[in-house]
Amino acid sequence: MESAERLKKIPPYLFMELRQKIGKARAAGIDVISLAIGDPVEPTPAAVIHELARAAHDPANHQYPTDEEKGMLGFRDAVARWYARRYGVSVDPQKEVIALLGSKEGCHHFALARVNPGDAVLMTDPGYPAYRASILIAGGEPVNVPIRPEHGYLPVLRDIPSDVAKRATAIFLNYPNNPTGGVATAAFLKELVDFARTYDVAVCYDNPYIEVVFDGERPLSFLSVPGAKDVGVELNSLSKPFNMTGWRLGMALGNPDLIAAISKVKENTDSGVFNAIQYAGIAAFTHCEDNIAHMLQIYARRRDLVVATLRQIGIEYTPARGTFYLWVPTPNGMSSLAFADLLLDKARVVVTPGRGYGEYGEGFFRISLTLADARLEEAMERIRQALES
Ligand SMILES: Cc1ncc(COP(=O)(O)O)c(C=O)c1O
User: Fold this and answer.
1) Alpha-carbon span 320 to 80, nearest angstrom
2) Cβ(208) to ligand 1 under 6 A?
3) Which of 143, 222, 267, 282 sees the fewest Cβ atoms within 10 Å?
4) Distance CA 150, CA 147 (A)
5) Would the CB of 104 count as within 6 Å of ligand 1?
């Protein structure tokens, strides 16, 4: 059975060979440790689980969650209060907030809500691969904007040729950045608002790592910059701050026209988030703020461990200030795929080759800090032994 043409445009998984090797090793009983996936192993806070159980027992929550198509007003209110308290951002929960099934879903539905077939759509390179897929499924043409270490992994917007900017109808970006760990500055966000206004480019500011910042960096919302609400939306998620990746709960906030357009797509696609999960989300915002600092301590400890091990094997590396990923240059200019292959063969450890995030990801590999301490320690010890010998 043939798939639709639009799916054929989505690039194949670059690391098919690596994935096959991992599968083979595991099938042969070899203990392979994966540092490739950003998915916290620590459990969701108990208060959230209790609230889900309570709400799941209430038959009122068993029906379609479509009474209020943007999500329960109680959830949207909790989001608005969270944004006011933590990021100094004021939004109208009626018109400027919508519940999502995670921010990945938001990226996809933002593209369907905004992008017409043939539109140019900007995204960073390296960049989160789901952006490209969302753009292609909407019929748009992804245009890569390089991000480089010398600019703190922020795009240089003035370098985007004006004919490209004029053709573009949207831009996808995320800071704190997956995969590089780069963080945005308020000055950059102001430039982004000006750029978006000048070229009528809608901003999809994907911010699921807003709380994962280190070394005194403060969480920064795109919407805290004057004028941001005129030009875009911020996507966010409960996945990372509350260890809720499996729950599928997030939110989009910002421009009311874009929120209404996303809502229209969702009404006709998924009918929204299970009410019991929205109640659980309210509990997370209300009772579980402490989880953020708790997780940051854990990630900081793991980050130090990885940096120390890298130093021992001759990779001098200072991590950027955000996310639970480390974006590390490969040793001796090795290609990222060759280095990942070497680690798999010699250390039975999986890292993500930077090339998978775009052309400008070449020469880097990504390590995720979301696995248990003991496993990470073992992985780093294996890497040390393999590369020192
Ligand atoms: C940049 C970025 N956006 C979105 C997501 C998806 O998050 P969610 O679980 O909220 O869908 C991820 C997950 O890794 C991500 O790295």
Assistant:
1) 29
2) yes
3) 267
4) 9
5) yes
pLDDT of residue 183: 98
pLDDT, tens digit, 9 for 90 and up, residues 209-268 = 999 999 999 999 999 999 999 999 999 999 999 999 999 999 999 999 999 999 999 999
**Distance from the CA of 104 to the center of ligand 1, in angstroms?**
5
Residue with token string 């309210």: 282
All residues at 6 or more sequence positions from 256 whose CB lies less than 8 Å from its CB, including other chains: 92, 95, 96
How many angstroms separate the CA atoms of 87 and 224, rounded?
A: 7
Please tell me the distance between residue 245's alpha carbon and the centre of ligand 1 in angstroms. 9
The CB of 368 under 6 Å from ligand 1? The reply is no
Whole-number Å distance between alpha carbons of 182 and 188: 12
Burial 185-208 (b: 16+ CB within 10 A, else e): eeebbebbbebbeebebbbbbbbb
- Chain-centroid distance, C-alpha 91: 22
Residue 108 Cβ inside 6 Å of ligand 1? The answer reads no
Give the residue carrying structure tokens 């639709």.
4
Q: What pLDDT was estimated at residue 12?
A: 76
3-state secondary structure of 176: coil
Q: Which residue shows structure tokens 């009772």?
A: 287
| Positions of the chain with pLDDT lower than 50, given as ranges | none
Distance CA 20, CA 28 (A): 12
Helix (H, G, I), strand (E, B) or coil at 29: coil
pLDDT at 389: 64
pTM: 0.96
- Per-residue pLDDT tens digits for 191-225: 999 999 999 999 999 999 999 999 999 999 999 99
Is the C-beta atom of 237 inside 6 A of ligand 1? yes
Distance (Å, whole) CA 260 – CA 95? 8
Q: Whose CA is nearest to atom 14 of ligand 1?
A: 38
User: Pick from 238, 275, 250: which is nearest to 45 by CA?
Assistant: 238
